[in-house]
Amino acid sequence: MATEYNEDTRGRLRKLNITTMVLATGPVGALMVAIDSRTWWEAVVLSLGVLAALLALLRWTATGISRVVLPCLAVAAAVWLAGALAVGGHTAFYGLTIIGAVYAAKLPRGRGAAAVALTAAVAGLGATRLLVSPASVADVLFSYVLIPTGVTALVAASMFLGQWYYDIVEELAASREREAELAVARERIRFAGDLHDIQGHTLHVVKLKTALAQKLVRTDIGRAEEELREIHALVGDTITQTKELVYAQRRLNIAAELENAKNLFESAGIRVDVAREADGEMDARAGELLGLVLRETTTNILRHSEAGQVRITLSAWGISILNDGVQEAPPSELSGLAALRERVAGHGGELTVEQKDGRFLTAAALPHDRPDAGTRRDDR
After folding, report:
1. Which residues contact 256 (CB under 8 A, 6 or more apart)?
2. CB 276 within 8 A of CB 380
3. Inter-residue contact 319 to 312 (CB < 8 Å)
4. Is 257 left (phi over 0), alpha (psi -120 to 50) or beta?
5. 9 with 148, same domain?
6. Do residues 162 and 268 share a domain?
7. Residue 370: is its pLDDT beyond 50?
8. Does the model's pTM come out above 0.70?
9. What is the C-alpha R_g of the chain?
10. pLDDT by residue (tens digit) across 1-14?
11. Residues 326 and 355: beta-carbon distance below 8 Å
12. Which residue has the higher pLDDT, 250 or 350?
């Protein structure tokens, strides 16, 4: 589930990047074509460079380089050469600069060398203007070499900064995914430990009592029957405890669950704000139910959201967990919370979930007859 969520995030980032680059590139390219072209065929030739750049941008992906990039790069280079030799368009380098800068920044290795090669190519193709232009060498070098080279260097630098930012976002997404998987692994380890505590002890005792009953069956039949009854009761109790563990109904310690939630959130880089309302002492029944709600909500936040802050409010008869970083989409029914809602309702309480303005609230309230009191805070 965390992987699916991260893929959705990457998809939205890709759309945002493509939209931003196309909206910035298209109008500027059209303006340059209008400035340089004097006839319709010149406009067509110069437009090919802009169209090649737009096509390459539309095929931009978070990882890898599309196969259309090299043909687009070749077309853009040909347009710049035609602009220098035939059209006399000193802005015809635009398409080559955009494509080269965007995709040089995406190379896994040799990004700096690719940027230098791009700048040299722009300068070299522009210098061919010296072969056909009657203007002075200084004017040609300024318009067709110096300015295109400087613009290319600036665009490449900006693209490198943008790719660096995107790489950081990717690393953070991967880190969050690893933290979510780690949280699930910790829960599995804790479940395995609880299962071992229940059944390991029982099996050891059953082994001893069975051996004792075998010795007593011919010498003290009454005592042997008593041992067998104890084994039967012990096995039945173990089956009950195992069912409680499987359905998350084993007794929990709310203080331990709260500390565990804090540690998990903070290890995932999520800020935690805890408020405890002093409205009386929490009894065992309330502690078990609220601990289950906190445990399930913690897992859901780590696996299904990109939270940056979580606020936990705990009282003797209720708990609420509010987190941000929620997708702007209708909330899906989480099976764990659905089962808990039925269990809380069975004890006369109510479990509510609410999503609004990018925030998700999970709140459980149990029946009580004690008035609320003041609040003390524990910020971490």
Report:
1. 291
2. no
3. yes
4. alpha
5. yes
6. no
7. no
8. no
9. 34
10. 444 445 666 677 77
11. yes
12. 350
Domain count, the chain: 3
The overall average pLDDT reported for the chain is 80
In the prediction, which pLDDT does 372 show? 41
Q: How many CB atoms lie within 10 A of CB 13?
A: 15
Question: Do 134 and 191 lie in a common domain?
Answer: no
Residue-wise pLDDT for 147-189, tens only, equals 999 999 998 888 888 778 777 877 887 787 788 788 778 778 8
CATH number, domain of 297, equals 3.30.565.10
Give the pair of three-digit tokens for residue 113: 């060398």
Q: Are strands 271-277 and 309-315 parallel, antiparallel or unpaired?
A: parallel
Q: Which residue has the tokens 């007593």?
A: 216
Please provide residue 365's backbone torsions phi and psi, each rounded to the nearest 5 degrees. -130, 130
pLDDT score at 187: 76
Q: Which two tokens stand for residue 168?
A: 């950081």
Which residue in the block uniquely carries the two structure tokens 């400035």? 35
CA distances from 262 to 191, 276, 295, 305 (A): 19, 14, 11, 16
The reported pLDDT for the residue numbered 231 is 86
State the first-to-last Cα distance of the chain, in angstroms, to the nearest integer: 28
